[in-house]
Amino acid sequence: MDYVIEMLDIRKEFPGVVANNNINLQVKKGEIHALLGENGAGKSTLMNVLFGIYQPEKGQIRVQGKDVNITSPNIANDLGIGMVHQHFMLVDTFTVTENIVLGSEPKKGLKVNIEDAEKEVKRISDQYGLKVDPKALVRDISVGMQQRVEILKMLYRKADILILDEPTAVLTPQEIDELIQIMKSLVKEGKSIILITHKLNEIMSVADRCTVIRRGEGIETVDVSQSSTSELASMMVGRDVSFKTEKTEATPKEPVLEVNDLVVKDIRNVDMVRGLNLQVRKGEIVGIAGVDGNGQSELIEAITGLRKAESGKILLNNQSIMNLKPREIYNHGLSHIPQDRHKYGLVLDYPVAENMVLQTYYQKPFSSKWSLNFKEIYNHAKRLIQEYDVRTPSESTLARSLSGGNQQKAIIGREVDRSPDLLIAVQPTRGLDVGAIEFIHKKLIEERDKGRAVLLVSFELDEIMNLSDRIAVIYEGEIVADVKPHETNNDELGLLMAGSNKKEGEA
Amino acid sequence: MKKLNLLLTMLLTLTVILSACGTNGDSSEGQKDCEPDSSAIKAGIVTDEGGVDDKSFNQSAWEGLKAYGEEYCLDKDEMYGYAQSNQDSEYESNLTRLTQQDYELIFGIGFKLKDAVQTVASQNPDTKYALVDDVAEGDNVASVTFKEHQGSFLVGVAAALKSETGKVGFVGGIDSPLINKFEAGYVAGVKSVDPSIEVDVRYAESFSDAGKGRQIAKSMYDSNVDVIYHAAGGAGNGVFTEAKDIKAGDSEANVWVIGVDRDQYEEGSVDDSNVTLTSMVKRVDVAVQDVIKRTIEGNFPGGEVLEYGLADGGISVADTNEEAYTDEIASKVKEWKEKIQNGDVEVPQTREELEGFVSNLE
Amino acid sequence: MKLQKLTGAWIPVVSIIFGLLAGAIIMLLFGYNPLAGYIALWNGAFETPYFTGETIRLITPYILSGLAVAFAFRTGLLNIGVEGQVLVGWLASVWVGTEFSLPMAIHLPLAVIVAILAGGIWGFIPGYLKAKYQVHEVIITIMMNYIALYSVNAIIRNVLTDRDDRTENVAETASLKVSWLSDLMPNSNVHAGIILALVAALFYWYFIEKTKYGFELKAVGYNPHASQYAGMSVKRNIMLSMAISGGFAGLAGAMEGIGNFGYMTLNNGFTNIGFDGIAIALLGGNTAVGVVLAAGLFGVLKNGALNMPLSAGVPHELVDIITALIIFFVAASYMIILLRHKLIKLYTDFKNKSKKGGANK
After folding, report:
1. Domain ranges of chain C
2. What is this model's ipTM?
3. C229 closest CB neighbour out of A344, A361, A367
4. pTM confidence score
5. Which intervals hold domain ABC transporter substrate-binding protein PnrA-like (chain B) (predicted)?
């Protein structure tokens, strides 16, 4: 009875793909066990096998030492296995308690006994320090809270083994810290946790042991305390990974983008950008650092023509582009890697090839007077797929079925290939694994070296510090500081982002 | 919870199936104890969108045909039958269908079938057709019309006598020459009794939308109208619903409906009372049977227009609701009926004629 | 047993068989002969050239109304207003057909084009309101249906006629009836509109799949945000899509106006051509071929069903249930795909188990 979960020699095939090839996973009681792998390595498949969503072609599963045959999530639940999916399965208009009891409602005759359920939810919440209000409506609580509701749901169903699928992907840094505390207290109370992730920092800070999967194969299980991020990273990617992106000193030339006294309102008619000034020159990467919601989105949308600017000036190559249509602005030499690739970057139900001409489909050679020239479109895609290492079965594969990293590479290929004078990248590596991040960072620096101006917006300080030649700190719609990365550090930047500079100036 | 839903769904399904069984009566009427009359002809009707259970003239026509079937001891679908149309475009199909199934005499019920009857009749000169409610051309087509304006005049008289508020209403189906005939006769009847009575005339723009009929009835009753005559087919059912609703809430309420085409006494029954004052009965059944008989006798009135009116019983005023339709009203109606038959009164058929009629009264 | 081969084209066929079986069970339950019922259905649609012609005549506007709904749907818009656009197109074609006297080479195309324009304008209005003021197109199109219904009636009554309940017949020069078709299917109302409808389906396919405009419309339909970010005008595409959708519907109206009837009567209620178009579009998966096939299914069922009460004695109400069941099963082919998966799994499980001989446990 050493292990609460043992998955031995698990093999799962999908038509044409071996998703899991003889993988072993052994989880001890009371540990946090990380499952590490790149996007598409087979982590989720393995967990879906454990949770009864898929049946393996081969292999054995033991829970608490007993051979079991998990053919449905219900059986998994009965065995004390609970899973928190990346996308929450909650009913927005129900209360926390209603969501938790959904499917196993305590009955009083025909009526649902919600009072007792609320008490029980409160008790569990207190026991593990979840601080969830049982009566709140799910749509009124934050994403972090909703995640705790999902965890509560598992605990309410008496789960002893919790599977958390990329739990931090949707959380703010502060929420991540809180989640780590919650995970630790769960383990203290005797629960076991399987943590699916590709973020090395998290593993280092919370996991006891770690199993690495690469391309469907189990690589190794290691004690985290005996290992290091670089070791884990190279196991995951299969080669050495550098975290510090190598780059030469920038040699900026004449300005490409000039923003003067820009004012932009948001949808509620509140000034979000308040007299902002910014300059981006040829051959430099300017990183905009700031806490989300300080006007970054509005600034970018105003520059790209997606939102009306109230007043000020936006010059691209000395020509005003303020309040032109997006298409006109693109034709002035601007490319935009938008922040949410699913929502803004891709038409997921279009093939990769068609996504790669999303701005240029109407121009020659992709289009004649009326009709599209599919031959050219597909040839164009073939070239970009090769140049930007987009891993896709073919050009006609739907964008939806690509992994996140490959979707992002497709977007970057599309935007960079238009040889823009100004490249705007917003959160370009969000949710990607180290391999993809490395590739994208390299590409951005390459563009800089070719003499393009790059404007980078990111909420991750490491990324800003790594990539930028200049850092412009945005606070409440204004640039409050312009610093060089080697002349500053995370702490100072953090203070600037919190508005310390501005307050001093005002005082 | 899921099980309960399943149970409910199953119960509901069962109910639907059982209730559908209930309506299945007329196809299993059992053995007959008579021999079919060999002189009988194969006759059928094509209804408009109302269908044979529209509680109005389609139903009346079908009742006439069924009566013929019983009289001659015939089997349904063998020697007599109907085809129901759901859309305007189905009239021709249905007429042709019956023609190709060797029906000898086919009725098109309703003025909307005029074009279809004319077209199909010209394509099939050996089959006999009859159009009810309008005049069609062709040697093999008989046209059956009714003097609805006369009947409407008489129920107008009844409405005027019954009204206490001095306001009566008319709800028409679609604003068209045929329904205008009802309107003109009705208004003339009302004004003949008392020119000061107001008549609120409105159209539902539909013969099937009961909701619309009910809405109009509600606004009329709300504005003090106490008697409504409807010539709106299925939309008129909404008038009955509204009147019955008011009556059910307040048994003293003075609201009345005058039915059309058939005696709509049944439609008006609410608790112990009844809101149907009377009905302008248009005996489509009588006409159907009459045309069939003439055809059997070898006198098919091809190319002719048969106009049924008060004299031959093709048009009458129902007196089923004895409580409401008092002797006083009955005798007054009878007076006016004689005047019409004598030719003392020329009942208007159009709005123009009505204007002249009303100005003569003053 | 090659269940794996049961894919693609076979699924709708199996669905129809399932629907027919379900209908048969209903008929049996009520004591009717299902075989006689289905023979009557088939005969009703195809027994003689006349009925074949009538079936084709019925399919014609269905193809177009289906395309109309499908077109808007590809841009992510639910055009419930096809019904009203059909009425407007019908009226427009009859207006041109009755009020002008021109040679056929001008008259007929003019009637068709004016009908398309009328329907297009009627579709453009909700598109404009949606694009400019974000009013939901479902609400406006429903209301526009009523406006169309009553306005058309008023125009027939007061403008095209003097308080009559139907218009004049359209001139021969504006009629879609052609002698070679009528000779092929004598006495039926089949008309050259079926060719127009098929051409329209071809146009639909080409426009949606091959042109840059179709590319934009679809992109907006799939993801308006990404389309806007890529520099497309979402508003312009919404208006364009609704206008073209309305154009298809207007053409469907012309099929009735200058094809089937040759006149227009006061409408007692909606024609249902537009509402059936919604079902046809969804059934056809919003593709050109799918819509043509679904319209065919609707036409055959609707026309054939008229014969069931007469030839097989099945009551109307039951016929409606049976046709609805058939359509339901086709629409629910997803269920059949699922069932297929289960069967395959059961089969392979069984095979695996018998191979292992239970040694695993």
Report:
1. 30-346
2. 0.81
3. A344
4. 0.80
5. 44-349
